[in-house]
Amino acid sequence: MTSDTTSPFLTGWAHTAFGKAAPETTVEHLMAEVSTAAIADAGLEAGDVDAVFVGVFNAGLSRQSFEAALVGAGQPALALTPASRHENACATGSAALYAAMDHVQSGRARTALVVGAEKMTGVGNDVVNDALLGASYRPTEEDAGSFAAIFGRLADLYADRYGDPREALSLIAAKNHRNGVANPWAQMRRDLGVEFCSVPSEKNPLTAGRLLRTDCSLVSDGAAAVVVTTEDVARAARRRVRVAGRAQANDVFEVAGRQDPIGFDGARRAFAGALADAGTTLDGLDLIETHDCFTLAELIQYEAFGLAEPGKGGLVVAEGVTQRDGRLPVNVSGGLKSKGHPIGATGVSQAVMAALQLTGEAGDMQLDRASRAAVFNMGGAAVANYATVLEVA
After folding, report:
1. In terms of DSSP H, where are the helices of the chain?
2. How would DSSP label each residue in 252-293?
3. Which of the residues 67, 172, 194, 388 has an alpha carbon 20 to 30 A from that of 230?
4. Would the pLDDT of 2 be above 90?
5. Which pLDDT score is estimated for 333?
6. Using only C-alpha atoms, what is the Rg of the chain?
7. Are 11 and 234 in contact (CB under 8 A)?
8. Of the candidates 165, 156, 152, which has an alpha carbon nearest to the alpha carbon of residue 198?
9. Active-site residue, 29 included
């Protein structure tokens, strides 16, 4: 249980636009853009940072590895600061963030910088597809041909058990794209509408099984950064967000080896653990930023988080519960679906989006009420699961 006196705080953040960066832009450039910006946003200087934690998936997306050292290469003022790189598939950003929070809570640092980044558009689609497929269990899942196809198989399992989720998936896609219009950093700021997201077409073809293009997150470039501090450092910041609770839970890597492949048990345990650690419940949350790598993922997460009974997740979005004006808005930022999904940046970006809401700095995205938020980021098909509760401090 995280107590008030040992809780880490977020005191500064920065975010690049997500999308297709210029060909000459590298991961080093993306990280440099957000590193000093986040430090300055926290009212600190580079010399105040005790350690740097970097999240970059890479997996063949870039020839340049050793990304921890790239922060100092891009920002010489950080070149001598201890730095480490963390990777956990699509939860890479959260892996770096959790390592930084552990470092601060342990007393080994007062201030840590977390940087998540990815450059995905500089290589061919075949390279991107193979890199992402590496987040599956290749011995038994590589034959799917793509990571999207693995979720396509899960969609078929869901349909066989509960009925075709097409309507729910379309409502989720339309919701997130509509929300993304207000996000200045989003890759696709376009309200596509439910009808477009419902019917296969030339512009919205079937991508994997019953999943349409609008059910799949975007290939993106981008970076995000946050500053994590102790409470005494946070007191001097112009504003701060407290990490009220957090939990990480893993599930069996091979999807077919799980008792229930569409139960997302690891997500359930992580989310419940974070709520318990924060001493709150679903009713105590004002918003959720969750990992909608595919619309099916968000649908199943509704059920794993306890918003709906198994097979009833579609009712949550159909009845407006997770719309931005609903009882518990989900992905007001547009989520991965609209904002984009640069793998290493995603978990950090989600924390930034939640922090903006809690501090009233979300601009056109701002909700009327936002005092406590949950963030959920997962790696693979809900294999590595990270849930975090943030609140106004």
Report:
1. 27-41, 67-74, 92-105, 125-133, 138-141, 147-162, 166-180, 193-198, 231-235, 265-278, 295-305, 313-318, 335-339, 346-358
2. -SSGGGSS-TTT-HHHHHHHHHHHHHHT--GGG-SEEE---S
3. 67
4. no
5. 98
6. 19
7. yes
8. 165
9. no
Strand pairing report for 51-55 and 111-119? parallel
Only one residue has tokens 């318990």, namely 276
Average pLDDT on 19-40 reads: 98
Task: Give the closest residue to 322 by CA, choosing from 347, 286, 346, 354.
Answer: 286
Instruction: Identify residue 8 by its one-letter amino acid code.
Output: P
Confidence of residue 253 (pLDDT cuts 50, 70, 90): very high
Q: Which of 15, 90, 103, 197 is catalytic?
A: 90
Q: Token pair 């995905």 is at which residue? A: 120
Q: HSE-up of 85 (CA within 13 Å, CB side)?
A: 19
In eight-state DSSP terms, residue 216 is B
Q: What is the mean pLDDT of residues 210-229?
A: 98
Inform me whether the pLDDT recorded for 4 exceeds 60: no
Written as six digits, the tokens of 79 are 């070149």
**DSSP summary character for residue 332:** T
Q: Side chain identity at 48, as an amino acid letter?
A: D
In whole numbers, what is the pLDDT of the chain averaged over residues?
97
| Per-residue pLDDT at 193 | 97
Of all residues in the chain, the percent with pLDDT exceeding 70 is 99
Taking only the tens place, the pLDDT of each residue in 311-340 is: 999 999 999 999 999 999 999 999 999 999
Q: Would you give the DSSP letter of residue 310? A: T
Helix (H, G, I), strand (E, B) or coil at 192: coil
Q: Which two tokens stand for residue 238?
A: 């112009």
Mean pLDDT of 192-205: 97
**pLDDT value of residue 3:** 43
Is 1 a residue whose pLDDT tops 70?
A: no
Query: Is 90 a known active-site residue?
Result: yes
Say if residue 364 is exposed, middle or buried (CB neighbours under 10 Å; 0-12, 13-18, 19+). exposed
Mode of pairing for the β-strands spanning 372-379 and 384-392: antiparallel
For strand 372-379 and strand 287-289, is the pairing parallel, antiparallel, or unpaired? Answer: parallel
Q: What is the pTM of this model?
A: 0.97
Residue 64 CB: number of other CB atoms within 10 A?
15
Token digits of residue 126:
């075949």
User: Residue 89 in 3-state DSSP?
Assistant: coil
Distance CA 290, CA 341 (A): 12
